Give the backbone structure.
Amino acid sequence: MKNWIKLSILSLSMLSFGVIACDLHGHSGFMPENDLRIPVGEKAMGGITEVQFNRVMDKMTSLYAGVVASTGRKFTIERRWTDATVNAYAHQNTTGVDTIVMFGGLARHPETTEDGMALVACHELGHHLGGAPRKSDPSTGALSWAANEGQADYWGTMKCLRHYFESDDNIAAVKSLNVPTDVVNKCQLIYKNDNEIASCERVAMAGLALGKLLNAVTQGKTPVSFTTPDQSVVAKTFDAHPQAQCRLDTYFQASLCDHGLSEAVSTTDANTGVCSVRNGDKVGNRPLCWYKP
């Protein structure tokens, strides 16, 4: 009976997805709009607990309320644990509040881990703080306040999640993660401190959890992997949601970017504070499957 319930809920994800990632008003979904719902009582699904969910949100608030305040705005997280929606959103209002909206339905998805949920929160905050490239109106070219989807992934991983893990015992944390050899080798090439290497591995594995989540919700037919990067090259920067493999590539490259957490990004210059070809970086750059340098 439980398996039937689980399959019935997952089958809802077969319904149509919106093709527009988010509007210029910032009702910005972590993933495309979907009809999947995972209610609070569905224990067969897995995912993370309410305690874990709140632990992530408490830590995000502690780390970033002051950062947002320094921009003259206020940071708030709407914790909708009982809401079955499998997504997350970001928006601003005219009274100076930067909001991210986090749903229990996403937390209860079987591919969601606590670290993955932290990366979702970082992605949503990335719309507010991630800088360029920003979303643009396709008809007028006018820029939104919000970093585009790929940049929210990139900043959310490189700056936010690394900061989130900064004071943790990452060496202990990665022992249970079964980190692939390719990730270990590449992290060791970039970082020399053992805890920084472990942080790099942990960040990459949070990205893998979300890559699997995105692939499951969008019914991807090919498993995502660190060893099968998306080979597509965009003619211009893509503002909407990249495919799951392309997003995993973004998470992985961001984990390998060793620019300091204190290096601020820019809302107008996409090369400031990050890895890029212009800055002479050979590793850690935004993938060409969504970004046009």
